[in-house]
Write a structure and sequence with these properties.
With about 140 residues, the chain is α/β, with parallel strands linked by helices. About 25% of the residues lie in helices and about 40% in strands. It has a five-stranded mixed barrel. The chain starts with a helix and ends with a strand.
C-alpha cells in the first residue's frame, strides 16, 4: 500500500512539473523534483527498471567518471544527492556523438543536466541502468 501511494505521489508530482514547463518529449524530469522525491523515484527505477524502459529521462547532478582498469571501458554518470546529501545515487549515461574524455567533458563534479532514453544492460552478471543517446549540458538548464 505504501509503495502504491509513493508511486502515485511521484507520478502526480511529475505530471505537475511537466505541466508547468513548455511541452517536451521528457517523460520523467528528475531535475525538477525535490531531493526526497528524486531519491524515491530513482530507487523505484532501480527496483523495477522494466517499468521505465524506453522513457525519456532528464536528470541533474555532478559529473562522475570511472574507467575499468582491465577493459579500459569508460563509464559516465550524473550523481544526484538526496535532500540531506547523505545518500547519493547515480545514473550512467552515454553521451550522443563522438566525445573524448577528458577533452570534451567538464571537470568531474561539475553540475550537468542529462537527457536520454532509459534502459538497462547486463555486464558481468549484473544489471545496470543507463541513459542512452543522451544530451548533456552544463548546469541546471
Amino acid at each position: 500500500m505504501k509503495r502504491a501511494f509513493l508511486i502515485l505521489l511521484c507520478l502526480t508530482l511529475l505530471s505537475a512539473g511537466a505541466a508547468a514547463e513548455s511541452p517536451s518529449p521528457i517523460d520523467i524530469d528528475l531535475a525538477s523534483l525535490s531531493g526526497t522525491v528524486v531519491y524515491a523515484q530513482v530507487y523505484d527505477m532501480v527496483m523495477e527498471p522494466e517499468l521505465y524502459e524506453g522513457l525519456v529521462v532528464r536528470m541533474r547532478g555532478g559529473l562522475s567518471y570511472f574507467q575499468d582498469p582491465d577493459t579500459k571501458q569508460e563509464y559516465f554518470a550524473a550523481i544526484i544527492a538526496d535532500a540531506t546529501a547523505c545518500c547519493s545515487q547515480g545514473i550512467e549515461f552515454v553521451w550522443a556523438g563522438e566525445h573524448t574524455y577528458p577533452d570534451d567533458y567538464p571537470p568531474l563534479g561539475t553540475e550537468i543536466t542529462v537527457t536520454g532514453i532509459f534502459g538497462t544492460y547486463e555486464e558481468n552478471g549484473l544489471t545496470y541502468l543507463q541513459l542512452t543517446d543522451a544530451e548533456m549540458t552544463l548546469g541546471g538548464e
